[in-house]
Amino acid sequence: MNKAEKNNAIDELVVNLKEHQYVYVTDSSNLSANANNDLRKLLHKNGVRMQVIKNTFVHQALERGGIEWGELKDTLKGTTALLFASNPKAPAIAIKEYRKNSDRPLLKGAYIDSDIFIGDDQLGTLIDLKTREELVGEIIGLLKSPAVNVISGLKSSGNTIAGLLKTLAEREN
């Protein structure tokens, strides 16, 4: 790879790192070519893109792009595969599913919306993360619940002001 090709690879990595809010750093060493292909298929099925890349390229891309990874930079040792996703927990779910039959890939760390998770023991935490859509759904459900109670109280009490007062009084007790 000549210098121009290296610079192009680093520039492309800068774009990928800036485009994706969710990046996992993994170690997929010791996987055979067939196992690596199976892993890539599973990741692709879950909307995750995998890129095996030199650690020096990642360091240069972070520096060139002005991207702050903090302690996550320290995980860039040995074989590194970056997983890019648009869903924060999709890579973690795919890794867990794949590891039912293998001990790899290992999670070195993850960059999730400016938060940093270090170590393979964080895989469970990342799986339990709620997506933005899940959080919005829970908030809407919580906000909707009191209104539904008042409306059902009105309907059951004959739609009168007395019925409304009775419902509110029962609610306080």
Written overview of the protein:
- This protein is an alpha+beta fold and 173 residues long.
- The protein has 2 domains: 3-129, Alpha-Beta Plaits; 133-172.
- Helix content is 54%, strand content 16%.
- It has helices spanning 3-19, 33-45, 55-65, 90-98, 123-128, 132-156, 161-172, and strands at 22-27, 48-52, 81-85, 106-112, 115-118.
- Helix 6 crosses helix 7.
- It is elongated and about 85 Å long.
Set down the secondary structure blueprint:
Blueprint: H1 3-19, E1 22-27, H2 33-45, E2 48-52, H3 55-65, E3 81-85, H4 90-98, E4 106-112, E5 115-118, H5 123-128, H6 132-156, H7 161-172
Helix pairs in contact: 1-3, 6-7
Structure, briefly:
This protein has about 170 residues and is an alpha+beta fold. It has helices at about 5-20, 35-45, 55-65, 90-100, 125-130, 130-155, 160-170, and strands at about 20-25, 50, 80-85, 105-110, 115-120. The protein has 2 domains: about 5-130, 2-Layer Sandwich (Alpha-Beta Plaits), CATH 3.30.70.1730; about 135-170.
